[in-house]
């Protein structure tokens, strides 16, 4: 009887140890599975860096990705379009230079701004309206472009100096510049697409060009708002449309 009791006790302990071992193994597997799933989710939330767009303070590449983008031009074709709600429904809304969203423009152009691409020549206009475009835009990413002489970090780069000062006054502002290496790549892209050498023809790329190329890197899907057909100005009966939606009495788009 004593031997039987010892056998039963040993068998019971062995079974309990086996059950505990299996339970611990399953628990560990489950925890590891949850951890890996959490890591995958976190990795999915962190977009890959977009090299060539460098932060003015930390000198790190922009990390941003959008599944859907609304690229809003500054065209007068947007006046009376009623596209504001559709534009704001995109994951990211991209605008150019100092194009406003305040006042009565919202129903036509929307009110959100995720990214604003700004030319060196528009810097002063943006600063003059800093309360509207900068102070209320802490979540907006700003990408500035300009000639290499404006971007010098030796104290002689006018645009770079202004951006550094602005970032010190508004430290939460997300300010980026296009590096000179990226500018060279965009020059080559322009030459491949048009057959023209920008430097030989002594021409400048437009903010619209930079904005579109940035959007192609940034977005999975792009809807462009306000862009007229290429032959619009050649039509004999085309309507008069202001160049900018926020300057209704300004120059005509086709002038």
Automatic annotation (TrEMBL):
Primary subcellular site in the record, as a coarse category: Golgi
Annotated catalysed reactions: a ganglioside GM1b (d18:1(4E)) + CMP-N-acetyl-beta-neuraminate = a ganglioside GD1alpha (d18:1(4E)) + CMP + H(+)
GO cellular component terms, A-Z: Golgi membrane
Pfam families: Glyco_transf_29
Keywords of this entry: Disulfide bond, Glycoprotein, Glycosyltransferase, Golgi apparatus, Lipid metabolism, Membrane, Sialic acid, Signal-anchor, Transferase, Transmembrane, Transmembrane helix
A GO biological process held by the record: oligosaccharide metabolic process
Cellular compartments annotated: Golgi apparatus membrane
Family named by the database record: Belongs to the glycosyltransferase 29 family.
Name used for this protein in its record: Alpha-N-acetylgalactosaminide alpha-2,6-sialyltransferase 5
Organism, scientific name: Danionella cerebrum
């Amino acid at each position: 009887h004593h031997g039987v009791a010892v056998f039963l006790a040993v068998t019971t302990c062995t079974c309990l140890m086996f059950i505990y071992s299996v339970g611990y193994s399953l628990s560990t597997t489950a925890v590891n599975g949850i951890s890996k799933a959490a890591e995958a989710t976190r990795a999915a939330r962190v977009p890959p860096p977009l090299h060539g767009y460098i932060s003015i303070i930390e000198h790190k590449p922009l990390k941003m990705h959008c599944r859907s983008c609304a690229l809003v031009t500054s065209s007068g074709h947007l006046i009376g379009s009623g596209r504001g709600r559709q534009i704001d429904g995109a994951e990211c809304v991209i605008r150019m230079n100092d194009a406003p969203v305040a006042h009565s423009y919202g129903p036509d152009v929307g009110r959100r701004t995720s990214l604003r691409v700004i030319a060196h020549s528009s810097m002063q206009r943006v600063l003059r309206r800093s309360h509207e475009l900068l102070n209320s835009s802490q979540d907006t990413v700003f990408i500035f472009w300009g000639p290499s002489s404006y971007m010098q970090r030796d104290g002689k780069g006018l645009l770079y100096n202004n951006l550094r000062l602005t970032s010190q006054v508004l430290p939460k502002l997300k300010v980026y510049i296009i590096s000179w290496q990226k500018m060279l790549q965009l020059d080559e892209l322009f030459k491949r697409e048009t057959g023209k050498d920008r430097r030989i023809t002594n021409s400048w790329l437009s903010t619209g060009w930079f904005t579109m190329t940035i959007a192609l890197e940034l977005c999975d899907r792009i809807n462009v708002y306000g862009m007229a057909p290429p032959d619009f100005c050649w039509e004999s009966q085309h309507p008069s449309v202001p160049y900018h939606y926020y300057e209704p009495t300004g120059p005509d788009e086709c002038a």
